[in-house]
Amino acid sequence: MDNTLVVFTYAPAGLGHIRVTDALISGIPEGTKYSIFSPEDTATELAHRFSSINTFARRIMEISQKGLVESVYKKFYTSFLTKNSKSIALQFLNLKELKKSSFKKIVIVSTHFGLAIQLGEAKKFIEEKTNAKVFLVVQVTDDSPQKLWMVEKADLILCPSHNTRNTLLSYNLAFPKDKILVTPYPVSLEFKKLLNKEEIEQRKEQYNPKSNIPINVAIPVSGAAVGTEFFLHLINGLKEKSSRYIFHVICRKAPFTLNFINKIKGKDYVKLYISESFREIVTMYKDVYEKEVIGCEITKPSEQSFKALISPYSIGGSYLFLAEPVGRQEYDNLDFLTRHGFLGDIIGARCKLLPFGSKASCEYINDLFKSGKILQDFENPLNEYDHGEIGDFGVEEFWKVVIREFFVKD
User: Fold this and answer.
1) CA distance 146 to 163
2) How many other CB atoms are there within 10 angstroms of residue 39's CB atom?
3) Is the pLDDT of residue 44 over 60?
4) 3-state secondary structure at position 133
5) 4-187+392-408 domain in CATH 3.40.50?
6) Nearest to residue 373, comparing CAs of 353, 345, 338?
7) pLDDT tens-digit profile of 327-340?
């Protein structure tokens, strides 16, 4: 491994790509040299935010993710990305690790299809400049088989389900079948650490309608600050219903979040964690779970929802309330969770989909706590882990495959 550098890449388009990258880093084999590459691209962040919060732009985005329009969109978007791949490659070559040392292999791990397409196009250019063999690994960050995830110049694509794998293969029949594999969704190793007996009892008591101990509610605000008004009304509404609720709000400080931050800061039932840095926000999110026994989390059905894969007796195993989905990928994630029994009314479910609107959501959450349903789910967790799609060992499986494919082979 001394002659191999692993480079993790992510785009400034929401926090999800960073969280998945962070999860993969949490399990990197000891002694492996690695670097992180995130190109300067404020346009990507602005476009992501606009398409997330603007109703018209969101509708256009959803149309571009289906049928013939999706095929046309991929063609033009890929063309745009490849034409700008050299500027990304030049930024990539400025990594200090590449300047300090020479490597025989560079394994690029991408959690964003845009960067994957660009770096795939630039592989030969990077090889010429570094005299190293370059490999591209793509980790699909939602269980959503969108055509853009079929990165033709990738050396390996890892998917969270067989549905996504098979659909991606159908987009390109010439792509080697053994280069698209299924591994469980990568959840950070910090989240899967088991709680001790006292902490398990504390989480259990949060679900007990007869208890008076505080219910710790985590609210991670998305990088695009989607749903801040919803969260504001939900926080106030739940607190009116019960003094037990304590809210841990993790929010990036940005011009478009200042109004929300100002409205909730100073409230004695809100603990606020803010930073201007994307990476610091991801770290704060993990720290909240490390320092507090979180009973539930209110979040979008994006990458955080895959914490449903881990045990409720783990640090990250809070009960999940999923807000209104935005974009095809979030609907696809809900389908994954439903398919495997994590989402629904069955005993042992790990999450629930909230009704439309903050008032209805507030009633729904409080009624579930009062009914003892969440306590019942906690005491009867799902224990069927099959299909190679579910389990809390996605990070370990990722590294087993990457080491087998690129470290062991000549």
Assistant:
1) 11
2) 19
3) no
4) strand
5) yes
6) 345
7) 889 999 999 999 99
Q: Which of 242, 228, 198 is nearest to 368 (CA)?
A: 242
Neighbours of 105 (CB within 10 A): 17
* CATH code for the part of the protein at 191-379: 3.40.50.2000
Check residues 259 and 215 and name the one with the higher pLDDT: 215
The span from the CA of 105 to the CA of 122, in Å, is: 15
The conformation of residue 381, written as its DSSP 8-state character, comes to -
Structural domain boundaries of the chain?
Answer: 4-187+392-408, 191-379
Q: How many C-beta atoms surround the C-beta of residue 191 within 10 A?
A: 23
What is the band of 52 on the pLDDT scale with cuts at 50, 70, 90?
very low
Say how far apart CA 38 and CA 129 lie, in whole Å: 19
Q: How far apart are CA 150 and CA 175, in angstroms?
A: 9
What's the rounded Cα separation, in Å, for the pair 345 and 120?
43
For 257, residues 6+ apart whose C-beta sits below 8 A from its C-beta are 221, 225, 228, 251
Cα 57 from Cα 9, distance rounded (Å): 26
Q: How far apart are CA 41 and CA 38, in angstroms?
A: 8
Token code pair at residue 386: 């099959």
Asked whether residue 246 carries a pLDDT value surpassing 90, the answer given is: yes
Instruction: Please indicate whether residue 410 or residue 352 has the higher confidence score (pLDDT).
Output: 352
Q: Which residues pair with 314 in a beta bridge?
A: 194
Question: Do 4-187+392-408 and 191-379 fold alike per CATH?
Answer: yes
End-to-end CA distance of the chain: 12
